[in-house]
Prior knowledge:
Layout: H1 7-13, H2 21-39, H3 46-53, H4 57-63, H5 67-90, H6 96-107, H7 113-125, H8 130-156, H9 165-184, H10 193-204
Helix pairs in contact: 2-3, 2-5, 3-4, 5-6, 5-7, 5-8, 6-8, 7-9, 8-9, 9-10
Amino acid sequence: MSTKNSPETSARQAPRVRKSPAERHAEIREAAAVVALEEGLAAITLRRVARQLGVASGLVAHYEPRVEDFVAATFARIAAADRTEVEQAMAGLDDVALRLRAVLASSLDSERLPVTAVWVEAWGLGRRNEALAAAVREEMDSWQELLRNVIRDGVRAGVYSAPDPAAVAWQVLGMIDGLNAQALVRWEGVPDRREHFLSAVEHLLGVS
């Protein structure tokens, strides 16, 4: 009688690969992001994320002992990934006007609505979660810096006329947030809102 194990037996006896703490933590953070995008930041609990991963809630608690910080980190992860996609949309464009249009068009893309919902919820929850509020402020600063730099490059190139690129960047960011929030409830008060928005921004920048 052969003493060799069958493929099925070998598979059953194969040792489980133990994930490193960094890998496990990254897996937990990614699962939380999925929950937030599908169900909202308020849905992030130790039990809900554990169920998403198919692990015990105690394991999640080991890596994320404070839910407030966990929610803040989840928001930061989602927002940073979204901003990176927008930055990539303008990468490689030499024309500064095209770079700005790429940023603005990407910002209003309807596929970003799940991210917009996370932003809107974060503004509300941030009233009672200081860690989340700090993460929101930091990400808003990053967006303002991105817009300011593009506008400043346009001013230096003689394409735009804006004495204070930082102030214009805040105005543009406010318009982006407002239009995206309106899109969440499918309000179509103005047809072709993207083109109207782009025209309004160009007016702010002195583009004739």
